[in-house]
């Protein structure tokens, strides 16, 4: 692992209105006879234009919190409001809609559809959002251009490098203009040079006014964020601006 | 709703891509459905063919005719109750017609005595064996279902004076006088010359067994003179006025026959009333049995095909669990995922249905060419029914795995490797 790239001349954008509000959230899992307390009472507020890193060793509840924030999962107890909507009480399809409109996912393993080209991959959230084919095409193309893949829109994932694949995934996360972009170890499957490029892209997205949440266990990645939350044993250990 | 439409087109696109990507697998799965559809549709055409053939045959006999005979149709175990019955005689027909004429509002029209046997007919150098020859008087014109190809039935005068004239079935005429008119020609029956006065049109065969064209009609008097009357074959054919009132007619005929036979009240009938819908009734359970057993057995092969579809859909869901997780993360609703896999299952089944129908059609055509008399009927309704069956098979067998896919927890699905 190369030493963390120096973070220079960072701008700090003023934060906007409240997007996510979590209050005393707990999550229990039952594995056989055992009950696992993945989250033991987490409270958190995230505002528009924040750039947030969530850190923690494995078993700290990091993934559980990320799933919760991404509306993939609901808390066992506690309050979760997304832009004023009560997520905790939502059913499957309501969660699907809120994910579609409000959240852009970037996965460690990219999760692109292997048999579809870059354009169709990026169009997918728009299809589920009921956008017409013409608008879909235009917006997906624009999103791909914005991540520097304007010349690759008809390439399939297996014709793209790892960094390019992650760029397609980022374009897909951006295309529906979500309230937050949630990235889970976005550089985990990339070599360090490409990882740096992706983090530079994130910086760029932040500066353009996006709200970013990056889940990682790498300090070098977390350092790019403006605020770092550290979890341990299902509780927030620290929540502080990045130095 | 635009969204549903976009989701549907996306689902169809994915299903097609999936089928293309797994050509071999899809083809093998479809094969199960193809075999099922071919089996079911072939059975369907056969059943329909039998039905049509049967109704055609019944129409040849005339469905408004009752038969008074010594023996009932079908099997009897108490043969000793029948064997000593008196045979039907020509005089019985005369007596019966007198009673009919004397009955106000009779449901019966007329009765005619007939007797029949198999014989050979010669003309010139040609000879036809096994011709079903029957004798009846000119009243039989009321019973004739077939039209005349040429000529006419012998007249009452010709019949009553036992003139040596005859009416030939189509095939007999063709065999004896190929390519020329038979009218006025002489044929030799029992060493006697008979003049042909009429030829019947081609009628086909009764239930594919008994040719209606291989027959000959003689005036009863002439028939009696050269063949004699064979007691066990004699019958009275009785035409009813309204075939929708067969039961009334049957009752009236029973009463009339008892009078003809001079039976005292309490005495048992010494004749049997056959025909009408009795024949149909007798064959109905057989027909239903064939249909039920056939559809059940062929249905089994379709069932096996359906299991194949279900299995392949389960495999497909399993293989693409992570993709399902991704789609859900991006905002796919349950309905979207359900539709995606259902459409995949249905499109394989529909393709199987189309191919299966094609194969069935080809086989029907081949069989028809090889054996024109074999009862097979390919029909539009068959196409509609089999496509419905194929699509229903896809929906039913794809539903459980597709539902499972739609209910996957996105967190679990995303983590699946």
Quick description:
The complex is a heterodimer of chains A (243) and B (417). By secondary structure, chain A is of the alpha/beta class.
Structure description:
The complex is a heterodimer of chains A (243) and B (417). In chain A, 32% of the residues lie in helices and 28% in strands. With 243 residues, chain A is of the alpha/beta class. In chain A, helix 3 runs parallel beside helix 5 and helix 5 (162-174) packs parallel to helix 6 (192-207). The longest helix of chain A has 16 residues, at 192-207. The model of chain A has no long low-confidence stretch (mean pLDDT 91). With 417 residues, chain B is of the alpha+beta class. Chain B folds into 2 domains: 2-58 and 282-415, no CATH class; 65-276, no CATH class. Chain B has 13 helices and 12 strands. In chain B, strands 2-3-10-5-7-6 form a 6-stranded mixed barrel, surrounded by 4 helices. A two-stranded antiparallel ribbon of chain B has the order 8-9. The radius of gyration of chain B is 32 Å and the shape is elongated. The mean pLDDT of chain B is 87. Chain A binds chain B through residues 67, 70, 72-73, 92-93, 96-97, 99-101, 105, 107, 111, 113, 115-116, 124-125, 127-133, 172, 176, and chain B through 1-3, 6-7, 10, 17, 21, 322-323, 325-336, 409-411, 414.
